[in-house]
Amino acid sequence: MIRIENESLSVEIAELGAEVRNVLHKDTQLSYMWSGDAAYWGRVSPVLFPIVGRLKDGRYTAEGNTYELPQHGFLRDAAFQVSDAQGDSVTFAKESNGEYQDVYPYEFRVEIRYRLEADQLHVDWKVNSLEKEDAMYFSIGAHPAFRIPLQSGEHAADYKLHLKPVQDKQVTTYELIDGLIQEKEQPAVLPAMSIQAALFENDALVYDHIEEVRLQSSEGNGVAVSLSGFPYVGIWSKYDTATGTMAPFVCIEPWFGIADTTDSTGVLSQKAGIQKLAPDAEFNSSYRMTFF
C-alpha cells in the first residue's frame, strides 16, 4: 500500500489495480471511501480499461478476431509499477508487454498519477498506444465508491446528489437493460436527488454532459467529483432485490466510454463512446475529488 499526504488529506493506494483504498480528511477525521466489504461489493475504486461496462454477449470483434472480456475489462486486477513518489503525489504505470493478447489485440501503456492539492485528490490519466501500424480502440473510466453515511446517527436519506450540467449542453439520461445501455430521456432540469435505494433498483444512473457531481449530507460533509471533459458519468450503488435496500456507499464514475448499447454490432471500433488512438499516440485526461 502506498500513502500520499498533505496538510489536509491522507490517501492510501494499492499497487494492485492502482486503486484508491482510503481517504482520511485530517480536519474532519472522516474516512470517505467505501471499505470494500465483499458482502456488498469487494472493490473500492477500480480503474476501468479497456472497456467501461458490459459487452453484448460478453464479447467483441477487433482486427478480424473475436475476444471475450468481463465487465469493465482487466486493468483493475493488474499489478502496477510505482514511480515518482513525492510525498503528496505518486505515479502508477502498467505496460501490456503482450500479456493481454488473448483478450485485447493492442499493446499499450497506462499511467495513473495521484496528486494532492489542499482537500482535493487529482487523478491524471495517460494512455499511450504502443501500436506501430493500427489505430488502438479503448475506453477508460473511474469507479470510486464513497461511504454513506459518513457519521454515526446519519442515514443515507440525509444525503443528496447534485448534478451540474455542462453549460449550453443538453443532458441525456440512459438506462441499463440487463447491463446494456439505451437512451432514456432528455431532462429539462436536474433536481437534487435524495439518496434512497429505489434510485438504483434498475442499476446505475447514467448521464452525458455533466461537469460535476456532488454528494453531500444535510450536515455539509461529502465529496464533489469534477469531471469536466468527460463524456459520461455513472452513479451506482449495489441494490438488493430481496430486501429492497442499497449498500452503504454511492459510486460516482467519470467515464470515457459506456456499456454496449442494446443494438450493438459488437465491433469495437463502432462501440458507443469508444476512444481511438493513432499509432504511437497519447491520450490524457484528469478528474478531481474534493472532500469536505
Tell me about this structure:
With 292 residues, the chain is mainly beta. The protein has one domain: Beta-galactosidase, Chain A, domain 5. It is 0% helix and 46% strand. It contains no helices and 26 strands. The strands form six sheets. The protein has a nine-stranded antiparallel β-sheet, with no helix packed on it. The two termini are 24 Å apart. The mean pLDDT is 96. This is Aldose epimerase. InterPro entries: Aldose_1/G6P_1-epimerase, Gal_mutarotase_sf_dom, GH-type_carb-bd, LacX.
Contiguous low-pLDDT stretches (5 residues minimum) are none
Question: Could you report the average pLDDT, rounded to the nearest whole number?
Answer: 96
State the helicity in percent bands. under 10%
- Determine and state the CATH class: Mainly Beta
**Rg, alpha carbons:** 19 Å
Largest sheet features: 9 strands, antiparallel
How many domains, in number, for the residues? 1
Number of separate strands: 26
DSSP strand content: over 45%
Secondary structure elements and their pairing?
Layout: E1 2-5, E2 9-14, E3 19-25, E4 47-48, E5 59-62, E6 65-68, E7 81-83, E8 89-95, E9 108-117, E10 120-129, E11 136-138, E12 140-142, E13 145-147, E14 159-165, E15 173-177, E16 180-185, E17 193-194, E18 205-208, E19 210-217, E20 222-226, E21 232-236, E22 239-240, E23 245-246, E24 249-256, E25 275-277, E26 282-291
Antiparallel strand pairs: 1-2, 2-3, 4-12, 5-6, 7-8, 8-9, 9-10, 10-26, 11-25, 12-24, 13-24, 14-17, 14-19, 15-16, 15-18, 18-21, 19-20, 20-26, 21-24, 22-23
